Structure formats: C-alpha cells, structure tokens
Automatic annotation (TrEMBL):
Gene3D superfamilies: P-loop containing nucleotide triphosphate hydrolases (3.40.50.300)
Species this protein is from: Phytophthora palmivora
Name of the featured protein: Structural maintenance of chromosomes protein 6
Domain Rad50/SbcC-type AAA, chain residue ranges per copy: 84-295
Superkingdom in the source lineage: Eukaryota
Length: 541
C-alpha cells in the first residue's frame, strides 16, 4: 500500500503541456558556484536524471529522428511552460529547468526538490503559501540560511500571431512571469516581454493572463501536490465532493454567480436608497411650496386691510392716503405675482413627485422581474452546462481522429515524394544508356561506311583485274579473295548494327512501359539476332 501511494505521488508530480508523445525534461545548468544542477555530483539532487540521460543515449537513432520529425510538425500552443527558474527558493540555491513541449518527468529521491518545482509554479502564478502546504507565510519559502530575497520565474509561450495570444503587441512570443519574495514577507509581481523588459507589475494583469490562457493554479486536476493527494486518498465523501467541485470548476462558477447575485442586490438596494433620498428632497420642496402657497393666501387679508384703508382715506389727508394706497396696491400686485409663481412651482413640484413615484414603481416591478429571470437563468445555466459537456465529447474524438489522419497523410505524401524521386532517377539512367547506345550506333555506321568504301575500292580493283585476267591470273585470285573478305566483314557489321538497333528499340519500349518485368528488359543482350532483325525491319517498313 505504501509503495503504491509513493508511485501515485510521483505520478501526480507529472505536468504535461500538450500532445500524446512523451519526452523527458532537459535541464540546463550553470557552474557549481552559480547554479544547482541535476547531476550525481550534487548532494541536493538524485542520480536518476543521469540514469535517464544514459538511457536516452542508448535510444536508437531512428527513433530519435522520428521524434525530431514529429516535433517539426507540432505547433506549440499558447500558455505552455518553457522554463522554470528558482533562486534561493526552498531547497534550491539556483535552479533552471527547461521543459519540452510534450510530457515531462522529473524524478529524484525524497528531499531532492521535486515538489519545490511545483511550488515555484504555484507561487509564481499567484497562489498563496498556504495553498502549497509548504509554509504559513510566503517568507517561509526563502531558502534556509539565506538572509536576502528569493526569486521565481516562469517563461510561457505566447505566439505573436492569432487571437489566442495574450497582448502580443506588448509581450511578443514569450511571457516571463517573476515573483520577488522579500524577507519581510512582502512580494512583488513582474510581467516581462520576450526581451526581459518589464511590462507590468499589477496582479490584475497576471490574473487577466491566467484567465486568458485558462490556467487554474487552485484546480487540483492542474496541480496536485502531496497533501491534496493524501486528502483525496484518505478523505471522506464530503471532501471528495469538494475535490470534484474544484476539479470541474463548479466551485469557482458557483462562487462567481454568488458574487454576481450579491453585487446585483447591492446595486438594486443602493439605487433604491438614492431614489428614496430624492423623494424625501422633493417632499421637502413640496412642503416649502405649500408654505409659500399659504402665504399667498394671506393676500386676501391684505385686500380687506386695503378696503379699510380706503375708508380711512376718506377721513384723512387725501395726499397721504393716496400715497399709502399706492404703496399697498404695489405691494398687493407683488404678492399676487409671488402667489402665481408659487402656484406654478407647486404644480411643477407635484408633477415631479408623481413622476418619481411612477418611476419608483416601475423600478420595483423591474427588480422583481430581474429576480425572476435570475432564478430562471440559474436553471438554464445548469442545462447549458450539461449540453456543453455532452457536446465536447464528440469534438475531442474528432480532434484526435483529425490528428491521426493528418499524420497518415504526411507519411503518404513523404512516401510519394520518395517514389517520384526514384522514378525520375531511373528515367535519367535509361536516357543516359539510350544516348550512349545511339552514339555507339553512329560509330558503327561510320565503320560500315568505311567498309563499304573499301568494298567499292576492292570491286574497282576486281574490275581492273578482270581486264588483265588473261595476263595476271594470280593477282585476280588475290583480289577475289580480298573482295570476299570485305563482303563478309560488311555483312557482319550490318548484322551487328541491326542487333544494336533492335536492342535500343526494345529498351525504348521498356522505358515507355515501366510495368514490364525487369528480366524481360535485361534479356535484350541475349535476344536472338533473327528476332532483332525482324523487329528492325518492322521498324523501317
């Protein structure tokens, strides 16, 4: 049971980036004074990496060539980890791990620092120290005995072409994420471009990048450390259900929807409070308008006083009473104007209050409608998630089949190119052989022509010898012998030329029909002369 758990723990440290092909991780190192390396001479690490390197050296050259050819056809995806760098982090003084684009295995004895590499990935991508189960505070992750700061850095791929890249105009084809851990417990994020220049120090930009690449550091299916593995193996059904929620991202979705519901309620309540405050202000304005209206109603009393003063005017000095009457009349007109203005303001205020009450009722109705829609959307959300889960299954199967067909097509294309190259080479060889044979035929024709001239000369000599046959019989016999020899040589030369022409014709026929058996083409050297002569006659007739 213990050995099986250890093997599971080792398997859970495996991090794969893409593709079904596997390749061991290659580690680059500096000198002993500058950087720790995975080698047998370093006491901090295991010798398994050296053994793995020896095994890789024993790999057949053909397999290595096939893997390299496959790497050329595989395009790296965005968000793939290329390199991990640690400085004074946990047990590592300086460590640089370069990863391949396929599955990477990091092996070693207990305490060699394998889990520290996973913790470095978590810390650099925004996780807390508690989530790594390696310390209560982030300053506890600084290497023991080191009084300075600690640094972790991760290099991610970010193709500069396509919509999947994260801000390619700022970062380029690589994104370097650094986290500086200080001894006082504070930390600093740095997002750099492919040249090493700092682009941002905000955690919000880091979270935006993680959300863009769909990197979930809290998801145990993405990063599973030893403590979470033990909890999963020994936990009760409730813990395993929580593990399931985190793995399927349902817990995060539920939390997000809860926050959305809470923010929606807060916005609705704050809007309701503001509108109620406006209503209270408008009510105060309405009360003030009512007060002015009441003051305007007091004008009637002034009119009564005016009548009294008019009566008194008859019993007083005319000039003084007229002046007082004029003043009272002006005052009365001014009060009437104020009363009319107050009445207009009262009507406007009353209309505004009615509008606000009507808007408040409409907003209350909308709020109830929004709550009903939210409950309905929650049910639809569950149905949509189930449909998405079912729809993704045939998509994954189609992608795998498409990848297999693409690889088969590439192999067939390569084989076709090789066959075409061989065919062109064979045709070139046949054409060269045909050219050589034609040259030889030309030489033989020249030789035949020479022999014919010699025969003609011999015939001339024979004719001359016949004229003097009576006197020179011995010379005649010699000339006739020479004539017979020349005729025989001429016939042999003609026969040889006919045979070579037949062979050349048969070779051209074989080139025109590449499907003929190879032994039939090779048999032209021993082809009977009479058949070759027949073919030659057919050719010219």
């Amino acid at each position: 049971m213990l050995s099986s758990r250890r093997s599971r723990a080792k398997a859970q440290k495996t991090r794969h980036n893409d593709s079904d092909n596997s390749q061991e991780a290659s580690t680059t190192s500096e000198t002993e004074d500058e950087m720790d390396t995975f080698n047998p001479d370093n006491e901090d690490y295991d010798a398994d990496v050296a053994v793995g390197q020896k095994r890789r050296k024993k790999t057949p050259s053909g397999t290595a060539t096939e893997l390299s050819q496959m790497d050329d056809h595989i395009k790296s995806e965005m968000g793939v980890v290329e390199e991990i760098y640690c400085e004074n982090f946990m047990c590592h003084r300086k460590l640089r791990v370069a990863l391949s684009p396929h599955i990477n295995f990091i092996t070693g004895e207990n305490g060699s620092g394998k889990s520290a590499i996973i913790a470095a990935i978590q810390i650099c991508l925004g996780a807390s120290a508690r989530s790594t189960h390696r310390g209560k505070s982030i300053k506890n992750l600084i290497r023991h005995g080191h009084e300075g700061n600690s640094l972790v850095r991760i290099t991610l791929k970010n193709d500069a072409v396509g919509s999947d890249a994260f801000r390619p105009e700022q970062f380029g084809r690589r994104i370097m994420v650094e986290r500086l851990i200080r001894r006082d417990g504070s930390a600093e994020y740095r997002l750099k471009d492919e040249t090493g220049s700092i682009v941002s120090k905000l955690k919000t930009d880091l979270e935006a990048m993680l959300d863009h690449f769909n990197i979930q550091t809290e998801n145990p299916c993405a990063i599973l450390d030893q403590e979470n593995a033990k909890l999963f193996l020994k936990g009760n059904p409730l813990d395993k259900y929580k593990f399931f929620l985190q793995s399927t991202d349902l817990y995060k979705m539920r939390t997000t929807y809860s926050k959305i519901d809470e923010e929606t309620r807060n916005i609705a309540e704050s809007t309701l409070k503001r509108e109620r405050a406006k209503i209270a202000t408008l009510k105060e304005a309405m009360d003030e308008a009512k007060k002015q209206w009441k003051e305007a109603q007091s004008i009637g009393k002034l009119e009564e006083e005016f009548e009294v003063l008019k009566k008194e005017l008859a019993w007083s000095f005319v000039a003084e009473k007229e002046a007082m009457a004029a003043k009272m009349e002006k005052k009365m007109k001014r009060k009437k104007r104020d009363a009319e203005h107050a009445a207009g303001e009262y009507e406007e205020t009353k209309e505004a209050v009615d509008n606000l009450e009507r808007k408040q009722n409409e907003k209350n109705d909308k709020l109830e409608e929004v709550n009903a829609r939210m409950s309905e959307n929650s049910q639809r959300k569950t149905e949509v998630k189930n449909r998405i889960r079912e729809a993704r299954r045939p998509l994954h199967n189609c992608k795998a089949e498409m990848k297999h067909l693409t690889q088969s097509k590439q192999r067939a294309h390569q084989r076709l190119e090789r066959l075409q190259h061989d065919l062109q080479k064979k045709r070139a060889n046949h054409e060269a052989m045909l050219h050589n044979r034609m040259q030889r035929n030309d030489e033989m024709r020249e030789r035949i022509e020479m022999k014919r001239r010699e025969v003609q000369d011999a015939e001339n000599e024979v004719n001359e010898a016949k004229d003097s046959a009576q006197s020179r019989p011995q010379e005649l016999d010699e000339v006739e012998n020479r004539h017979d020899n020349c005729v025989r040589q001429l016939r042999e030369a003609d026969s040889e030329t006919e045979f070579r022409s037949c062979s050349s014709l048969f070779t051209r026929i074989a080139i025109g029909f590449p499907n003929l058996p190879s032994d039939l083409s090779a048999s032209t050297s021993s082809f009977p002369r009479d058949i070759c002569t027949l073919l030659w006659l057919l050719k010219w007739h």
